[in-house]
Each structure stands twice: as C-alpha cells, then as structure tokens.
Write a structure and sequence with these properties.
By secondary structure, the protein is of the alpha/beta class. Helix content is about 25%, strand content about 30%. It has helices at about 10-20, 40-50, 75-85, 150-155, 155-170, 235-245, 285-315; strands at about 30-35, 55-65, 90-95, 100-110, 110-125, 145-150, 185-190, 195-205, 215-235, 260, 265-270. It is elongated.
C-alpha cells in the first residue's frame, strides 16, 4: 500500500490548492530543458524563450541524457520534472547530425505527456542583433498579441496543431479585461510553406489616428527565427476527451434570502415592514366615512320622527 501524504502546514496546503484542478486555468508555467548535446544557436534560443516568459518559466541548465519524448519510456524523467516544478508546457532542446538545432515543444495533462511538436530552428536572430529605440522595449510580464498569417494554419494538419501549441506557449496569464495602453508587444507567426513558420517578436507603437482607436505600428525587436516542423504527435481521443472535460457544478452567484428544497423546489423569504394602521391618515372623502355619516344621519332623522309621533300622541 502506498502512503498518501497530506500537507501539515498552511504553506503546504496553499501549494496543494494552487496545483489543484481549476475551472478557469491560471497562466501555464513553462519548463525549459537541455539535451545531451546542444549548439550555441540552440542555447541562445532557449535563453531568450526563458527571458520572454520570465516569471512563468523555469530553466534547467544541466544536460539530460534520459529524456526522449517521442520514444516509449523516454518520457519518465520529463514527467518527473513536470510534477516537481508544476509546469504544464515544456521546451526541450537537443542537437545532432540527423536533427540539428532541434526543439521539442509539448504539453502535459496531469503531468503526463499530452501532445508533442518537433521543430528545427533556422535563420535565428537574437535580441542583440536588432537596433531600435530602447523606450519601445516591451515591459516584462506584459500581455502580448498573437497573430497568425497564412492559410496553412487552417488547412495543414501539422500547422493547425503547431498553432495550438504556440498559443499555449506564448499567451501568458489569463485575463478578463485588457487595457489597450498596457499592450506593448505582438508575436507574428507567418506560414511560409506547409511545414515552415516564420516567428518574430515586435514592439507595438501607438500613434494618433484622429479617432478613438489609435494607429498601430510594429517595430521588430527580436528574436526572430524560422521553425521547420519535423514531427508531431497528437493526443489520443480518450485522453483528449478527458482533458477537455469541464465540471457541471459551476459556481453560482449567491442569492440572498433564497433556499432550495428537494420537495418544494425554490423557496424565497419576503420581509414586509410592520404596518402601523392606527397611525395612517385617512382621506376626508373615504367611502367608509361617507357610509358612516349617512347611517348616522338616517338614525338621527328616525329618532326625530319617533319623538314627534310620541309628542302628538301625548297631546
């Protein structure tokens, strides 16, 4: 029997709550790993991906020999690191004669491999190779725009899958509202061919346009690179169905003075203030008052007639 360990401190309980399943996911953390052998270009790519996702990324600099995501049994170490760091996206870099400057980008579900995309890096340009006004440099942690250009992202199966992975990798924190003044960068992904995507990072400059919507200009700040799709692996149908499952019991807004009963259904409490009838001012022309006056008048007339008859009889 395996021993189930529970948190004994408040800090441990908070950490378990952060890792618990949520109806609305927070920003996904990225794990960046090195293979047995890497090139100078690949090291620069991994470092700049880490800087672009700083705050939501963890980078390990040691070489890992046992990680082979596309091979059976080669994902055990990767899943261990995913569980240890609570990262749901990983970027693994390796370099060989057969696959030079190789990047494997993948996602995990319940800290198990969900899907994989393998790409080759070509024509890489680092941040330092671009000259621009440093005032336009994007701020750390700002929310980016992501744009996809080309029909391949809608028609080619490999690029459709690659698009999903790139969105998860680049979008950052999930927000409900967005201030346009705080958006200062954009990722531009262009489908050059059926297996090649040009990725570049641009700063966003807002200028006056004479209307309420400002005119936007893009200034390339880097990095930029060509990503050639080599292999990809989609999740199986059962795993996809389980990962896409949502909770039926969504949190409802609390209703005051309302409760639900199994037999009677929805029951509401209505509070009525005390009615001080004795202090209410009645109008002069109320029907009840008219009726009382009419009855009193008829009674007085009847009493007078009876008195007159009695007087006549006595005479």
């Amino acid at each position: 029997m395996l021993e189930i360990k529970t948190a004994k401190t408040r800090k441990g309980k908070r950490e378990l709550e952060k890792r618990a399943p949520k109806l609305v996911e927070s920003g996904k953390k990225t794990l960046i790993l090195h293979g047995t052998k890497t090139s100078a270009v690949l090291n620069a790519v991994l470092t700049e991906i880490y800087h672009l996702k700083k705050g939501n990324a963890i980078k390990y600099s040691r070489k890992n020999e046992n990680i082979k995501p596309f091979e059976a049994g080669g994902e055990a170490s990767l899943e261990f690191f995913s569980l240890k760091t609570d990262c749901s996206i990983f970027v693994y870099g390796s370099h060989s004669k057969k696959r030079p400057d190789n990047l494997i980008i993948g996602r995990t579900y319940d800290h198990h491999i969900y899907d994989l995309v393998e790409v080759g890096v070509e024509n890489f340009k680092s941040l330092k190779s671009f000259t621009y006004d440093k005032k336009l440099a994007p701020k750390e942690g700002s929310k980016p725009f992501i744009t996809f250009i080309g029909e391949g992202f809608e028609t080619v199966e490999e690029l459709k899958h690659f698009k999903e992975v790139l969105i998860d990798l680049l979008h950052g924190e999930v927000v409900g509202n967005l201030n346009l003044a705080g958006v200062d960068r954009v990722y531009v992904c262009t489908a050059v061919s059926t297996n090649r995507v040009f990725l570049t990072h641009c700063a966003l400059r807002l200028k006056k346009s004479g209307t309420t919507v400002p005119r936007m200009e893009l200034v390339e700040v880097g990095p930029s690179m060509d990503l050639v799709v080599r292999r990809h692996r989609l999740p199986n149908d059962s795993l996809r169905k389980e990962a896409m499952k949502t909770s039926i019991d969504k949190p409802r807004k609390k209703e005051k003075n309302v409760k639900r009963d199994v037999l009677q259904g929805k029951i509401g409490n209505v509070y009525i203030p005390d009615q001080k009838i004795g202090e209410m001012a009645l109008p002069n022309k109320a029907k009840g008052v008219k009726r009382e006056r009419r009855e009193a008048k008829m009674k007085n007339v009847g009493d007078e007639n009876a008195a007159k008859r009695k007087k006549e009889d006595s005479e």
